[in-house]
Amino acid sequence: MASAKSIFEHQNTIVPAGQTVDDVYVVGGDADISGQVQGIVVVINGNLHLGSTAKISGVIVVIGGKVDQDPGAVLGDDIYDISLDNATQNSLLIGGGLVLSLWVLQLAGSLLMVLVPVLIRVLSKKKMIAFTERYQRESMGRLLYAGFLSGLVIAALSALLLVTVIGIPILVLILLALLIALAIGITVISYRIGDRIKGSEQMPDWLKVLIGASMLTAFSSIPLIGWMLLLVAGLLSLGICTQWIAGKRKKKTKA
């Protein structure tokens, strides 16, 4: 039997006829109300029975149970009955699976952003060292400008190739080359970030890349700011690769 102004119970609860309480909260049990409730009634994982003498002034919320109302019960507000039937369970399962899948994809992307630059630096050895040191002296504004122009050209070319069946395989190759360019650019950016850390002079190059890539990945996980950071990193990567290709062509022309 309930004997308080507001009821918070984890078991079957009864509000008898003639008794008035403010609110009723029952979790994991059934509620049988024949008296008066001036506030709200919340029943979670249990059933609610409203007797003929029941008078409820506030909202009734039942989650995971059923509402049984006798004739004569007076309700002052709405009833919200959320039953965890098979359809609801399937919806929760699908929604939870989608959230988990997105989280796994985000985790995999973060790991790749850290591991790929380190692997590129370790496997390429001296070639990547010379490539990285070359772009330590380049202006960031110039690289961003080159990356922006390259991105516009790639977007326009991709749109033209997408409308033709013959151009789709070429588009796949372009996208693959773009991914490689982004990976190389992220490696250079990660090295430059790690090299600016105090005390990094004695660190091996792969450790500098690891620290820089970890910091870049951490900041890129911040909503909105992270997206802008990834956009800038992508433009810088395109600018680095564009200038490298332009430099190669100049050498061939001179030769």
Q: Which residues form runs of ≥5 with pLDDT under 50?
A: none
Q: What number is the mean pLDDT?
A: 81
Structural class: alpha/beta
The strand line-up of the biggest sheet is: 1-4-7-10-13
* Envelope shape: elongated
SS summary, helix count: 6
Radius of gyration: 32 Å
Q: State the share of residues found in helices, binned by percent.
A: 55-70%
Which percent band covers the strand fraction?
15-25%
Quote the distance from N terminus to C terminus: 98 Å
What does this structure look like?
By secondary structure, the chain is an alpha/beta fold. The chain has helices spanning 86-124, 126-134, 140-162, 167-195, 205-220, 225-254, and strands at 6-9, 13-15, 20-21, 23-27, 31-33, 36-37, 41-44, 48-50, 55-56, 60-63, 67-69, 74-75, 79-82. The strands form three sheets. Strands 1-4-7-10-13 form a five-stranded parallel sheet, with no helix packed on it. The protein has a four-stranded parallel sheet with strand order 2-5-8-11, with no helix packed on it. The protein has a four-stranded parallel sheet with strand order 3-6-9-12, with no helix packed on it. The longest helix is centred in the middle third of the chain and has 39 residues, at 86-124. The chain is elongated.
Any chance you could write out the topology, listing elements then pairs?
Layout: E1 6-9, E2 13-15, E3 20-21, E4 23-27, E5 31-33, E6 36-37, E7 41-44, E8 48-50, E9 55-56, E10 60-63, E11 67-69, E12 74-75, E13 79-82, H1 86-124, H2 126-134, H3 140-162, H4 167-195, H5 205-220, H6 225-254
Helix pairs in contact: 1-4, 1-5, 3-4, 3-6, 4-5, 4-6
